[in-house]
Design goal:
The chain has 248 residues and is of the alpha+beta class. The chain folds into 2 domains: 3-111, Beta-grasp domain (Ubiquitin-like (UB roll)); 118-247, Fumarate Reductase Iron-sulfur Protein, Chain B, domain 2 (Orthogonal Bundle). It has 8 helices and 7 strands, in the order ββαβββββααααααα. It has helices at residues 33-46, 118-127, 148-158, 165-169, 176-187, 196-210, 220-224, 232-247; strands spanning 3-9, 18-24, 69-70, 73-74, 96-100, 109-111, 114-115. The strands form 2 sheets. A 5-stranded mixed beta sheet has the order 2-1-5-3-4. Helix 2 packs antiparallel against helix 6, helix 3 (148-158) packs antiparallel against helix 5 (176-187) and helix 6 (196-210) packs across helix 8 (232-247). It is elongated and about 60 Å long. 35% of the residues are buried.
């Protein structure tokens, strides 16, 4: 395939960015999107042009770092995949593809397609953990009876990889889906009961302090989430927050 790539280039956080057009040929439909970007960068470096900066790590849809806004969609025109799992067969020969960083005030651009998502880290530090007895009398988690329905819901919430697609997609740049997934994975399990009250209050407070917008139940976050995290988690987080506020 021969493609035209219109990519956001920005030298650093303080400089102004712009869309730059590149032509690329001999793209195999079996390439992943990131492999195609690798080929482009090799060509740019041969020409003495600074390669396009983008995040990547595992390339297995697990780390969530390969976030790109492709043709107006977080992670591109496929569902339940990250950018590294998106294949070029989703595009046609001669297509023009727009590639941008995730757009949100809380995700400032570092360079080109790389954004700073440490706001998510700070939210998790505020309460995304459980107390563990390390005295030598630690109880095996598998020995604690848990209803299968709750275990399944907790596991589904825990599949959130923190990529930020929900924020980038939301018209309000809300982080409610991300935060609710982190709250839910512990709220549904007995191990999470110890910090339950402080957890939801502290995480929601940190989310607000970071400047994320409010949820207006548009549902775009669930549609674009590569792991299909359900909006049910937002409702659960809201219930947990109300209960916690009464306890306080």
């Amino acid at each position: 395939m021969q493609l035209t790539l219109k990519i956001w280039r920005q030298e650093n956080a303080d400089s102004k960015g712009k869309i730059v057009s590149y032509e690329i040929s001999d793209v195999s439909p079996d390439m992943s999107f990131l492999e195609m970007m690798d080929v482009l960068n090799e060509e740019l470096m041969i020409k003495g042009i600074d390669p396009v900066a983008f995040d990547h790590d595992c390339r297995e849809g697990i780390c969530g770092s390969c976030s790109m806004f492709i043709n107006g969609e977080a992670h591109g025109p496929d569902r339940y995949v990250t950018t590294c799992q998106l294949h070029m067969r989703k595009f046609k020969d001669g297509d023009t593809i727009y590639v941008e960083p995730f757009r949100a005030k809380t995700f400032p651009v570092i360079k080109d397609l790389v954004v700073d998502r440490t706001a998510f880290d700070r939210i998790q530090h505020a309460g995304g953990f459980i107390s563990v007895n390390t005295s030598g009398n630690t109880q095996d988690a598998n020995s604690i009876p848990i209803e299968k329905a709750n275990a399944d819901k907790a596991f589904d919430a825990a599949t959130c990889i923190g990529c930020g697609a929900c924020v980038a997609t939301c018209k309000n740049s809300s982080a409610m889906l991300f935060v609710s997934a982190k709250v839910s994975q512990f709220a549904l399990l007995p191990q999470g009961e110890v910090e339950a009250t402080d957890r939801v209050i502290n995480m929601v407070k940190q989310m607000d302090e970071e400047g994320f917008g409010n949820c207006t139940n548009t549902g775009a976050c669930q549609v674009e989430c590569p792991k299909g995290i359900s909006l049910d988690n937002i409702a659960r987080m809201n219930r947990e927050l109300v209960k916690a506020q009464f306890k306080k």
